[in-house]
Amino acid sequence: MVEGTQAYGHLMVFGISAPILILILQLLGLACFSYIVYKRVAPLLRGQRDERLDRPVLRVQKVAKFWLGQWKHPRYRVAGTLHLMIFAGFVILATRAFYLLLFGLSGDFAAPSAIGRAYDVIADYAATIVFLAVSAAAIRRVVFKPARYAVPEKYGKWRSVDAIFLLALIALLMFSESLFEASRAAIQAQHGMPPEFLPLLSLPWVLLSTLGAASLTTLWNLHLGAYLADVLTFYFLLCYRPFGIQFHIETSLFNVYFAKLDRGTVKPVRWGVSDEQLDQVKSFGVKTFEDFTWKHMLDFYSCADCGRCSDNCPANTVGRPLSPRFLTIKARDYCFEHFPVFGSANNSHALIGGIYSEDEVWSCTTCGACEEECPLLIEYIDKIVDLRRGMVDEGNVPKSVQKALKALESRGNPYGKLEKKKAEWAKDKEFQQTCDVPVLDGSHGAETLYFVDSITSYDDRIQAIGRATARILDATGENFGILGASEKDSGHEVRRFGEELLFQALRDHNTEAIKAAGVSRIVTSDPHAFNALKHDYKDLPPVEHISQVIAREVKRGSLRLNHVEDAQKVFTYHDPCYLGRHNQVYDDPRAVLDAIPGLRRVEMGRCRDRSFCCGGGGLMLFYEPQENERMGVKRVQMAAEAGANVIVTACPFCMVNIEDAIKVSGMEGKMTAIDLTELVDQHLVRQEPKAAETVNEVPTHAHA
Amino acid sequence: MSARIFAYIAHKGGVADDSALELMAAAKKIDPAAAATAVVTGWGAELDAVCEGLRASYAEVWKIASESLAYPNAELIRKALVKVIPAGSIVLVPHNHFGIDLGPGLSVKLNAAYVSDVMGVDGVEGPYLKVVRQEFGGVVSTHVRCDVSSGAVINVRPGAFKPIDGAPASGTVVDKSGDAGALSAGRRYLETVVAETGDVDITKEPVLVSVGRGIQEQDNLTIAQELAEALGAVVSCSRPVVDAKWLPKSRQVGSSGQTVKPKIYLACGISGSFQHLAGLKGSPFIVAVNKNPKAPIFQVADVGIVADLLEFLPELTNKVREAKDAHASR
Amino acid sequence: MEILVCARRVPDTSENEIQLNGAGNDIERDDLVYSINEADNYAVEEALQIVAKSGGTVTVATVGTDEDEEILRREMAMGANQGALLCDEAFSGSDGKGIATILKGLVQKGKFDLILTGVQAEDGGAQVGGMLAAMLDYPFASLVNSIEVLGEKKLKVGREIEGGNKEMNEIDLPCVLSIQTGINEPRYVGMRGIRQAQSLEIPTYGAAELGIDSGSVGEAAAKVKRDDYFVPALGKGAEILQGSNEEIADKLIELMKAKGGLQ
């Protein structure tokens, strides 16, 4: 503000001096807000422990990338761009907001410095952009109605009314700020002073042009009025936000800071309780709301109801009862209802059978698409696993899964097959002639362990993947072996289905067997086993997936691949969830495919971290869901749409689901599926066996 | 073998069950020299009709008529038999839902031995009757010896003994109703709840496309459905498919399901357990499609195809359609 | 209602490959895993559901040795209040009637309103329930697939009969019922429950405690004995059609036409 302008200290509003009024308003607003925040924090204090204070440097980096950098937002172009504008605007305007509040208290709209003036210009544009962005967002909501915002009947009413209301308030905030600036400049002009510089085409600039003819009194009224509107709107929004999705504005910073750092893992049953101490825990899993950890409750507060998670959830797409978005929103609504700001907390109610259904929770394949999309880094898999732990604790497990779990307990595999037959796949007569697979039982040792896991060992069709993998390892000259009968199921899905103790029994058994084998590295062709050994197990030698091994050996030149035979074949690679999304191995399998000369490859629209789950592995194969169609069928259709006639995958469960889907969708003859190892095995350039040495011939020229 | 052999005859609607002649055949194997006596319980004209019919095969038919026995309640029947059957006798009972209800308790009250679900008789050795049973769902068989010196109740597997051709008898009906006397028991029959037949009555169909566990998923049923439509047939199934709730109970063929008498029976992905085959009567032309060459169904089928039904059936459907089109366009 | 469930530990066919042993006189027992007989598990679940509604306790008993105790623990982990192991050298080699006699001793020692067994064990003859009832002079119903409690003295039970039909009966208490699989959906027993059940007390009763004359049970008293196991020689069986799927389909159509199955 230029010197000499009268401060507003003299102004009165309804008989109260303006600065006093403003002070009272702000104190009231702050008090309200503090109380609301206190009530919102209360349930978190009753929640379970969650260890989120480690690795602060990494956490700050995540905040920089995902919160400040809005890294995930552009995955949805239009909405992402709008939000980027709004967010950037808010960040820029944050300084001005505080400034404005303080101005009011000082009774003097004091002048900023030169930096301040430069800032003001940026802030003016920021306010304009935010104003336009929220308007666009509102129009988008009302006119274009993107599908993912829709609320199915069973979940409640169309919530866009609330969203539009809030967008309107933000617009009002921007408007009143801009009016404040504009009216000030007009006042300065009327006093004959050089007016505040308002940048061209910014909202304040636009407003200024409409104020030219106004009287000084009017301008002062507008000026103060704009200020009051600004303060009121600011504090209204501040207090209103914690009642809805806009709370994410406050909680997002914390939510991102405290976000989970380790991909592919599952939280322990209780943080701070070691495996040995688990017997003392009275109740496993999440049965009532207070069983969630404080961070999970914070997740519920932080949801912006954007629907990106459900939009990408394969279970949701095929009509299963699960929608991640509503998993969160229902919990949030429960929390708002039972831990209200006005009123006292209610008793705990069972979640399953209450806000959640059993099928809803069993429907999840743990593919991680939801977590990959969420711009607020809200976690889902840990919650689903915790809810399942609660159901298992109560004995509430689907019948078909019970059978598999019982077989896992008795025989170490979900099929109930005999342990002594675990290595039968390697004893196939024809196969044994080309490749020997020793069992590391003490009489044999090796550098590398090929961890085969249950489905590859026992399923007639999938055993071919085991054999192909063995031949590839053989061709690399690798000194490898398998555990055979002493290998039990990795337990990856057992854990994710909530049977934590059975998982631990399997894990401990396998860890002992692996250590006894004395290997220095582990390779597997099963991404679920890969993830388990890498993240669920401890103190093991390094683990790799076979695709990583092949990629490396091909690059080194120790594996060479023949030209593709059938020119008609168009290949597409399907990223398995536990190789791709959870472990970020996207490029190695593609490099392998591209190393096959003449191979034509196309990408599906949903590839890499947007890959669409095939339907799930492990115990998910035993769960009979309610759905409209199969995930595998959708995936096969995507492959066909991309122009492919061969789907290549690198996971035995994907193979089962996709081959099944090809049959069920009647695409036999038009689409085939092949595992990466089988494809490589087919195309391996093999060393010709040495010609037999002629016998009994004594060299006549001894030193030729 | 000096023990008298009795055959308990089950009946419905005035007609004796198929097991009547099977039990006679079993009795012959136990003691070729003796003639078994039929014992029948029931009430009214239906009972009389059954006894009349049995005279053609059995030398003696013991009739126990009582209004309380109008519906076959095993608890009451046991009490009647205990009063009527002489000590030390061998009583043959068909092994089904009724026989399971009657046999064990009857053996205790008669102070006799009990063997259930007997599929074969090897003969007598001293006080022992040597029989053949199965265990573990039919995977293994066992030779069992039963001390029959104080009598025995033997439950006989339906269909295990083929009725023998013999000279027609001209038996006498002996009324033992008086010996049985008044009967009461701690279990009273209320009513029979009939299973929903649904839209289709498989017991009337001449051609059945039957699916078992090998169908793997509910969605695959369309493959069977299409073949059935092409053949002008209907889809039936074995118990696992009903347990999984993929088809209603009315479609189940088996001892706890429907009894069917088709001309042609396509058993697809069905292993061939005896409970399932027990529902298959007459002499249908049985075609078995199963990817396991060792499946027991191949023992009873006329023609076998070792293939995955999910691959084979669609091909068969196409061929059938072609054949029909060719036929129609003649 | 005080309920007794009589259970048996058997090799589960879905987790074992039942085969003849080398000598051909028994099944190969080396690599067997055992669990509670499936139908008995359904019976325990049914008992638990009944007491959940009507009050009372569930006792699970088995005739056997220490090895068989594990099934009692598992059922207690599932929710059964009490276990009882009926163990005595005199019991070994008992036939069905012997087992029923032993169980009768336990029943007479307690005060049970309802006794449940599974319809049949994998290696059994669907007999113990009916025999036990006759020995106790209790009414009996087999193949029960539904139970409704009608007050303190009566039940309404459904039996599975042919054609998928259900025979409804009224039965007086105390009684014995043999339970068919599929009557309910048994709850899951997790590793956690089993671990916690390891420390539970399970009383053992011998012939003396049960008031049983050892001459009436055991091998010597058994009237029915297994001589051996065998696998019958396979007959001719089906004619396996050969060729490509197309050729087979053609051949099959011809055969079906001949049998009058094709219009």
What can you tell me about this protein's structure?
The complex is a heterotrimer of chains A (704), B (330) and C (263). Chain A has 704 residues and is mainly alpha-helical. Chain A folds into four domains: 70-257; 277-393, Orthogonal Bundle (Fumarate Reductase Iron-sulfur Protein, Chain B, domain 2), CATH 1.10.1060; 416-556, Rossmann fold (3-Layer(aba) Sandwich); 570-683, Rossmann fold. In chain A, 50% of the residues lie in helices and 5% in strands. Chain A has a four-stranded parallel β-sheet, with helices on both faces. Chain A has a four-stranded parallel β-sheet with strand order 8-7-9-10, with helices on both faces. Chain A has a two-stranded antiparallel ribbon with strand order 1-2. Chain A is elongated, with a radius of gyration of 32 Å. Chain B has two domains: 5-180, 3-Layer(aba) Sandwich (Rossmann fold); 202-328, Rossmann fold. In chain B, the strands form four sheets. Chain B has a seven-stranded parallel β-sheet with strand order 7-11-6-1-4-5-12, with helices on both faces. Chain B has a five-stranded parallel β-sheet with strand order 15-14-16-17-18. A three-stranded antiparallel β-sheet of chain B has the order 8-9-10. In chain B, helix 3 (74-84) crosses helix 4 and helix 6 runs parallel beside helix 10. The radius of gyration of chain B is 22 Å and the shape is elongated. The termini of chain B are far apart. Chain C has 263 residues and is α/β, with parallel strands linked by helices. Helix content of chain C is 29%, strand content 27%. The longest helix of chain C has 17 residues, at 38-54. Classes of the chains: A mainly alpha (704), B alpha/beta (330), C alpha/beta (263). Chains in contact: A-B, A-C, B-C. At the B-C interface, helix 4, strand 7, strand 9, strand 10 and strand 13 of B face helix 3, helix 4, strand 7, strand 8 and strand 9 of C.
